[in-house]
Write a structure and sequence with these properties.
This protein is mainly alpha-helical and about 60 residues long. The protein has helices at about 20-30, 30-45, 50-60. It has a domain at about 20-60. Helix 1 (about 20-30) packs across helix 2 and helix 2 (about 30-45) packs across helix 3 (about 50-60). The mean pLDDT is about 85.
């Protein structure tokens, strides 16, 4: 029995800015809320960690 896993992609249907959180949620099978909350928490200590990670994901992860 083999389970085929989808590739990580930025979501076109579940997006607020660039679809990074929606794509991560679809890939891991969890609610988008948790990824959005994680990026929000990463923005709190000055904003740089969250913004850098998000921008890196925008350029690295391909769109659907």
């Amino acid at each position: 029995m083999t389970t085929q896993r989808q590739a990580l992609r930025r979501s076109r249907s579940n997006r607020v800015v660039a679809g990074v959180c929606g794509g991560l949620a679809e890939f891991f099978g969890v609610s988008t809320f948790w990824f959005r909350l994680a990026f929000l928490v990463a923005l709190i200590p000055g904003g740089v960690p969250g913004i850098l990670i998000y921008l890196a994901m925008v350029f690295i992860v391909p769109s659907e």
